[in-house]
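Tutorial handout. Part one gives the primary structure; part two gives the three-dimensional structure as tokens.
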Amino acid sequence: MTENLLNLTLDELRRKCSEISVEPYRADQVFQWIYEKGIYDFDQMTNLSLDLRKTLKESFLIFLPEVTERQRSEDDKSVKLLLRLKPKDFVEAVYMISGSRKTVCISSQVGCKFHCAFCASGQQGFFRNLKMGEMISQVLRARDLSPDKKITNLVFMGMG
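Part two.
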């Protein structure tokens, strides 16, 4: 069974690599591809051998949610993304530019425990808290909107 690599810390990935007879330093290379270069496909990680890429694909996946909707602000300084995590689990992430700041606002839950009349999240009810990889994937999807692939600030939406 493949495991979402985004749910793992670097140390955890190093341990998992050792367990499948892959040198632990390879975890560092994979993290560089994902977090520094914005590459989420093992086949594009060209400093890894073909055999190693095959081994990694057999054990791990890099899950990024589908962007189902994208709304740009009139001033073009923010983009709201509606992301599908699972068939019925949607969250929003917002990428915002203000001067030199590039901020991503992410969701930490699917739904909300409070039922505020003015809030769509509250009206749908609370379903679950997000896993680490699901929160990280929101940041990565938003970071892909940045021309230089850099984020300076991270904030969480005010749900529940």
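Part three, for discussion. The two ends are 33 Å apart (CA to CA). The CA atoms of residues 111 and 124 lie 6 Å apart.
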